[in-house]
């Protein structure tokens, strides 16, 4: 079985195996699927500008005649050179064409298939994981290390630095969709062009939430004991297409910040002072909610919340179809708990 994630996926994408010309890209991060497909297609062609070198196929149309995939892949190009086929999977199955092609794979043509967040028992995914000439690569929302690398790569290309507090806030505004995150960082580098270092003010003035939603509203409502707001704002997030795991990740970051701050407060520092001097710097609009959370949640209770969120993060990955329910239930539980003082 060949299903790649993490470092294995990165290694394959940097040097694709010629013996596996059929590549399935799938997962909830549509931007990452597109970005990886773009890179795989570009590296498969001798001349990206040659209109005859790349064939685009729609999966639903291909389902009516799956053998067309084989015909296109084995076609001899008029002017020679390597070719590529880009297939956008839909709701209808064309797995018969993939299985036939996998049995007799082409040598000078790469087939890149883009799919959504398909389940492990999906016929297309199973076929690509099983075939020796194919590979399936999961595309999931960026973890902190991935976001840090994305930021570093874009800043290096623009010859810019970024302050620690600005980086910390920027990290919380990215994620959920790789292309949206990259576009936000590029917009920021353009905004800060010529000034050497990006500041927190630059981030706050320029960058919007790349998940199309300010997750702070949900997170702050949970930790300040407002389950009604959690419920309503979470519903909006789901309608907007936000990945549930991204909301849990934002909650994990805030829980860690609150736990560290609560230990300082327990040592005798006033909550307002601890919040102002903490790192990453908390945006002023969140200060009141954070003070409420610190009053109602002790360090011991916050440690339990951190553990609770870790379990939820794992469960949302293991049970993707139940991810929204798991995330909402966890956040509502935290909100109810925060209403009762420790």
From TrEMBL:
Keywords: DNA replication, DNA-directed DNA polymerase, Nucleotidyltransferase, Transferase. It catalyses: DNA(n) + a 2'-deoxyribonucleoside 5'-triphosphate = DNA(n+1) + diphosphate. SUPFAM superfamilies: P-loop containing nucleoside triphosphate hydrolases, post-AAA+ oligomerization domain-like. GO terms for molecular function: DNA-directed DNA polymerase activity. The keyword Nucleotidyltransferase applies. It comes from the Bacteria. PANTHER family: DNA POLYMERASE III SUBUNIT DELTA. Belongs to the DNA polymerase HolA subunit family. NCBIfam families: holA. This is DNA-directed DNA polymerase. It comes from Rhodopseudomonas telluris.
